[in-house]
Specification:
Length: 320
């Protein structure tokens, strides 16, 4: 793999030219390579937000572990929530290669200065929500994340390969929960439909604002961090959902949804962005609860961090 010498040796403009060349030729940037500050900052922000989302995202589903309807469902849900913890850890590790510490990222999350995906600020009201989250939220995550496997920053791309494999299992288990409910009693079918009605629009909003309101998107695409625009990915997601909704027998809560033969794509009804802006502004249904739980978990885990640090110091002493 080609590497870029430090700007001290060759001057910043030469390093920049080599960086541009690597990006243009679809080569990957490794942590040791020179990179523009803005590229580094963008990645730190995106990767840490992504890691925080995985960690906060454990909460809505953890809410149902004790109430899962069978031992099998409980075991599957626990495994899924553990996978999300793992995703957070891979991503914190990948972000650390950019020079930020995990402690600093955690501090930002605890202090409320870092963002995470707003989808996790919605409550999980019924067991069917476990199905709708897997099908819709993990489904949207896959659409977003599969192209990230080819992200120009190599550690991020490598982390995403494993994450995407697990996300596709998550999506299938969600689909299967909904399918089981849809084959059940009228009440169970109603519960599944209600969950889809509540999670559908927030899952479309996971792709971010429309392209014309997403000024940083073009720059991220130029750097090959992002490969497709928000609207392209949202479109692709809806295209994937429609046949799956038919197979499930659920309806998608968009009366204006229709196939546009000319564009060979689905026409999506208007999205109520004001709702998303409220959630982003911290006024979503569960923002305060999610943050409080995260802070408590951090405090409750202090003894584990202290014990691990003491053990590591002891081992280092013994090895010296
Ligand atoms: Fe995940
Ligand atoms: Fe997942």
């Amino acid at each position: 793999m080609t590497t870029i010498d430090t700007p001290v040796e060759h001057g910043e403009s030469e390093a920049q030219a080599r960086f541009d060349e690597l990006i243009a030729s679809d080569a990957r940037i490794e942590p040791r390579d020179w990179m523009p500050d803005a590229y580094r900052r963008t990645l730190v922000r995106q990767m840490s937000q992504h890691a925080h989302s995985e960690i906060i995202g454990m909460q809505p589903e953890a809410n149902w572990i004790t109430r899962a309807p069978s031992l099998k469902r409980k075991a599957i849900l626990m495994a899924k929530v553990q996978d999300e913890a793992g995703h957070g850890l891979y991503l914190y590790s990948a972000a650390q290669t950019l020079g930020i510490t995990r402690d600093a990222m955690t501090e930002q999350l605890i202090a409320g200065t870092a963002k995470y995906s707003s989808i996790f600020n919605y409550p999980t009201l019924s067991w069917a929500d476990m199905g709708a989250i897997g099908w819709l939220v993990d489904g949207a995550a896959i659409c977003n994340q599969v192209p990230l496997c080819r992200c120009s920053y190599a550690p991020y791309g490598r982390a995403m390969v494993r994450i995407c494999k697990e996300e596709s299992f998550h999506q299938r288990q969600g689909f299967e929960i909904l399918l089981t409910l849809m084959r059940g009693t009228p009440e169970q079918r109603q519960m599944a439909q209600d969950a889809v009605d509540r999670w559908y629009w927030p899952s479309l909003m996971m792709f971010g604002p429309p392209d014309e309101e997403s000024p940083n998107s073009a720059r991220s695409m130029g750097w090959k961090i992002k490969r497709f625009s928000n609207d392209e990915l949202r479109q692709r997601f809806v295209g994937m959902l429609v046949p799956q909704a038919e197979a499930l027998g659920v309806s998608l809560p968009d009366p204006q949804l229709r196939w546009d033969g000319e564009r060979q794509a689905y026409e999506i009804g208007p999205i109520d962005w004001s709702e998303l802006h409220e959630v982003i502004a911290g006024r979503g249904p569960c923002n305060a609860q999610r943050m409080q739980r995260r802070r408590e978990a951090h405090e409750d885990g202090a003894w584990v961090r202290e014990a691990a640090a003491a053990y590591a110091a002891k081992r280092a002493e013994a090895a010296a």
